[in-house]
Amino acid sequence: MSDVVLEVKDLAKRFTLVELERLLELKPSAVVKRVEAVRKVSLTVPTGQVYGFLGPNGAGKTTTMKMCMDLIQPTSGTIQIFGSTPSDPSIKQRIGYLPEHPYFYDYLRPQEILDYFGRLFGIGATERMRRIDELLSRVGLQHARNRSLRKFSKGMLQRLGVASALINDPDLIVLDEPLSGLDPMGRKAIRDIIIEERAKGKTIFFSSHILSDIEHLCDRVAIVVNGVVKREGELSSLLQSDTRTSEMLLRNVSEEALTLINAHSTSATDMGSSTWKAVVPQSEMSKLLIQLLQCGAIVDELQPHQDSLEELFVRVSAEGSAVC
Amino acid sequence: MLGRILAVAQNTRREAYRNRAFTVLVIVGVLLNTVGFVLSNLAEPSQKARVIQNFGYFAVSFVSAITAILIGVILLYKELDRKTIYTLIPKPVMRYEIVLGKFLGLGQLLFGLVIFLSIGWVGVMWLFDALVVNSQSVLDSVGAAVFLVLLESLIVTSIALMFSGWTRPFLSGVFSFLFFVTGRVVFVLEEHLAMTKGPLSADGPLRQLVEIVVYVVPDLSIFNISREIALGIPVPGHYLWSASAFAGCYILVFLGIGIVLFGRRDFV
Ligand SMILES: Nc1ncnc2c1ncn2[C@@H]1O[C@H](COP(=O)(O)OP(=O)(O)O)[C@@H](O)[C@H]1O
Ligand SMILES: [Mg+2]
């Protein structure tokens, strides 16, 4: 088994929309509209990790995932899953997928849906029954197994979607916004499932626009903005490599030192009794330090300032919009 | 492969049974049969048997064709419109297996429906002594008629499947319906083409268009043998054979096109 489950290179998707209703405007260019949903996405999802696909709404996460799931043909670029292409049935056997808005046959009951999907995977009848029982209780739907889906809330549908993504005990679990639209109990249930599956050695690739989900669950992340992956890698090293500031705690700060601090730092906080906390860009650091020491200030602490994922995300998003 | 096709087929049937439109259509079929013998009381005694026979036949063939279109189109419409197809495509089921499974499921459904309605038809004829015409039993031609109705609805189903492979759900419904109606009247167009007078006789653009239509659209009137039933004429076996071959060819072509188009479709 190779140690990379999913490898995406330079993926792009351009949608061509034909808007017949704009024929009246008599401009041919208005009728055919092109949307670049995904421009340049490259990802490497290693085996056994939780991979977070992070990006604002409309960044191209769903479109990328649909291309990986054989729902949409890419305009350009390549996708390798388990060393094969997305349309290969033998790799589909090993994948579980939760679409962004799970759509279900509303004339079926949860038990029947899972049974149908199980049959499509060629799972035998007794094994199907066993898994259905297990999954329905894992997602907390055992009380509703024979209830009509028309009476399901959005959160219940989401739980059922997760259960049906797991019916084949997949090696790769692809979840599109699995935590959105859930109450706190539901979020916890799904987070627990992600953690349990990882513990079993499964690979989870999931998208979200909610930072805290990613920050707490993921080993590795990609940040996509406007159809382009801006950052990709281990979460910890991404946060570190984007460290461009240091935080210093200074004592004995004179008037002269304060003017220096104000001139060079991005933020300065008065901690009382001539003690100041300042966040200083890496580039200014050495110069400022020397000058401050000359003014008699004492450096109590000096540490690289680690970004939170949120700061990283906001900065990367801003880069993205500056390009466009 | 067979297991997956059967799974899709079973689900298709289950969906249809639970669809309100299907229930309504079955009730319409039963009602039409009932209307037949109510009307027969108004007819002259010599025509009584004929009215019962015709109405029953109409009930079977009309309800089957409408079911083929409506249910075929509604089910596919829902599959695409509700995006349940999203959960299907990433499963290890080939796209052609989905198309074949749908066709099989709808075929089984229509088979059951046609048998059910025919039993009602024969039952009513038996109750009202309409089983014999010109001292000949109509049962043979009833059997042939039922078989032909089934063939026709299978063609219509394959047409609905073909269109849903590429157009938007609503359009596919409209196209399938137009195709069906054209198929029923295409023999009239053919007759017009053969005439030396009339709107289609000249070498105009309309004539060319109609020629294409006649060429492409299957002539569904060959599946209608109401005249033979009314007159008690037996339907020869070779007629059934060639009708089956005709239907088989069209179904293969339509399903083939449907599979190719469905295979390339983006599910956005
Ligand atoms: N079928 C489609 N036709 C045209 N544009 C689309 C289609 N699907 C998505 N888009 C556009 O592509 C962009 C990316 O969408 P999406 O992949 O859904 O983003 P995300 O999942 O990150 O929110 C959006 O601007 C969206 O409007
Ligand atoms: Mg999305």
Helix content of chain B: over 70%
Helix segment tally of chain A: 12
Give the quaternary arrangement of the chains: heterodimer
Sheet-strand content of chain A, in percent, reads: 25-35%
Low-confidence stretches of chain A: none
What topology, given as strand order, has the largest sheet of chain B? 1-2
Q: Most extensive interface, residues per chain?
A: A-B, 30 and 26 residues
Round the Cα radius of gyration of chain B to an integer and report it. 20 Å
Work out the number of β strands of chain B: 2
- What percent of residues of chain B are in strands? under 5%
Mean pLDDT of chain B: 83
- By helix and strand content of chain B, what is the structural category? mainly alpha
The CATH class of the largest domain in chain A is Alpha Beta
How many structural domains are formed by the residues of chain A? 2
Largest sheet of chain A: 6 strands, mixed
Question: Could you give the order of strands across the largest sheet of chain A?
Answer: 5-6-7-3-8-9
CATH superfamily of the largest domain in chain A: P-loop containing nucleotide triphosphate hydrolases
Would you tell me the structural class of the helices and strands of chain A?
Answer: alpha/beta
CATH topology tier name of the largest domain in chain A: Rossmann fold
Question: Can you describe what's shown?
Answer:
The complex is a heterodimer of chains A (324) and B (268). Chain A is an alpha/beta fold. Chain A has 2 domains: 205 residues, 3-Layer(aba) Sandwich (Rossmann fold), CATH 3.40.50; 62 residues, 2-Layer Sandwich (Alpha-Beta Plaits). Chain A is 37% helix and 30% strand. Chain A is built from 12 helices and 13 strands. In chain A, the strands form 3 sheets. Chain A has a 6-stranded mixed β-sheet with strand order 5-6-7-3-8-9, sandwiched between helices. In chain A, strands 11-12-10-13 form a 4-stranded antiparallel β-sheet, with helices on one face. Chain A has a 3-stranded antiparallel β-sheet with strand order 2-1-4. The longest helix of chain A is centred in the middle third of the chain and has 16 residues. The two termini of chain A are 41 Å apart. By secondary structure, chain B is an all-alpha fold. Chain B has 10 helices and 2 strands; from the N terminus they run H-H-H-H-H-E-E-H-H-H-H-H. A two-stranded antiparallel sheet of chain B has the order 1-2. In chain B, a hairpin with a 2-residue loop joins strand 1 and strand 2. In chain B, helix 5 runs antiparallel to helix 6, helix 6 runs parallel beside helix 10 and helix 7 packs across helix 8. Chain B is globular and about 60 Å long. The model of chain B has no long low-confidence stretch (mean pLDDT 83). Chains A and B meet through helix 3 and helix 4 of A and helix 1 and helix 4 of B. The structure holds adenosine-5'-diphosphate and magnesium ion. Adenosine-5'-diphosphate (ADP) binds next to strand 1, strand 2 and helix 2 of chain A.
